[in-house]
Amino acid sequence: MQLPSQPLQALTIDIEDYFQVAAFENKIQPSDWGKYPIRVDRNTYRILDIFEQNQAKATFFILGWVAEKFPELIREIHQRGHEVASHGFSHIKATAQTPEDFLQDVRSTKALLEDIIGAEVTGYRAPSFSICAENEWAFACLQEAGYVYSSSTYPIKHDHYGTPYWPAEPYLRKEGLWEFPMPILTIKGRQIPIAGGGYFRLLPYWLSKALIQRYLQNNTSPYMFYFHPWEIDHEQPRIEGASFKSRFRHYVNLKRMEHKVARLLQDFEWSTVQQVFEQYQSSHKA
Predict the structure, then answer these.
(1) Which of 257, 229, 198 is nearest to 43 (CA)?
(2) Is this structure's pTM higher than 0.90?
(3) What is the rounded CA–CA span in Å between residue 192 and residue 157?
(4) What residues pair up with 15 in beta bridges, in sequence order?
C-alpha cells in the first residue's frame, strides 16, 4: 500500500456563535439564543476574506440554526470553493440525544444545507466531538442519513469530550463511513491535543507551529486544524455568571487569534476535508 510521502493539511471551521458554545451551555439554553446579538455572519465573512487573501480552502461545519438565518452566507461559502458540511442543527451534544432524535437532527440539517447550496453534503462533525463509547450508535445514524465521513472524535482525555482509546488516524468504520479523528501527538506516553481551538489560542504561535511540524514529520495521515468564527472576535459581548474555567477557555487571547490564523495560513498549505481525505483514501486503495 503506497502512502503519500507528505501529509496534507485540512482546514476546518465550526460555524456557531459565541452564545452557542458548550462552555456556556449551563447558562444559556437554545430557547434564549434570540436574546443575544448575532455576530456569526460578520465573523464568517471576515474569515472568508482572510482565506481568500491567503489562497486557502476549508471545510465549514455549519449549524442548521445558522444556515436557516443566513442562507446567503452558506451559498457564499460554497461559491468561493469551500466545502459545506454539517454540524447538526442546534449544537446539542450527540451524547444528549436519543438515536431517534440524533437521526432526525443530522438528516434534517443535511437536507437544509443541500437545499441551500444545491449540492450534496457528505461530512459531519458532532458538537464538542461528542461521539464516544456510550453513543457509538451515532455512526449508524450518520450512515443511514447519507453521510460519507465524520470528524467527531478527539482521542484525548478532556472534561467535555474525548476518546483516548480510539484510533488516532483516519479509519473506515464498520458502519461504512470514514471517521477522521482530530490529530494528536503522543509525547512520553501522554496524548497532546494539537488540532487548534482553545489550545491554539493559549499557546505561543511558535510552539503550535513546532508541534504541527513534528506531527507532519512523523505521520502519514493528514493533519487537521479547527477553530470558530467567534475566536477572531474580541469585541463579542461577555457572558455574565459563567465559571472562571469557562470564561478563561472562551476568552483567552481572542485579540491575538486572527493574526495567528493568518500566520498559520502562510506557513502551511490548506484544503478541504473532502479534498484532503479523497487523496488519503485513494492511497489506501492502492
Answers:
(1) 229
(2) yes
(3) 9
(4) 62
Virtual torsion, Cα 106, 111, 116, 118, nearest 10 deg? 120
3-state helix, strand, coil in the chain (%, to 5): 50, 15, 40
The answer to whether the beta carbons of residues 67 and 108 sit under 8 Å apart is no
Which pLDDT tens digit goes with each residue over 102-120? Answer: 999 999 999 999 999 999 9
Largest CA distance in the chain: 55
Model pLDDT, residue 3: 34
Using the predicted structure, report yes or no on whether residue 286 has a pLDDT greater than 60. Answer: no
pLDDT number for residue 231: 97
Q: How many CA atoms lie within 13 A of 89 on its CB side?
A: 15
Residue 112 is predicted with a pLDDT of: 98
DSSP 180-209: -PPPEEEETTEEEE-SBHHHHHHS-HHHHH
Residue 18 main-chain phi, psi, to 5 deg: -60, -30
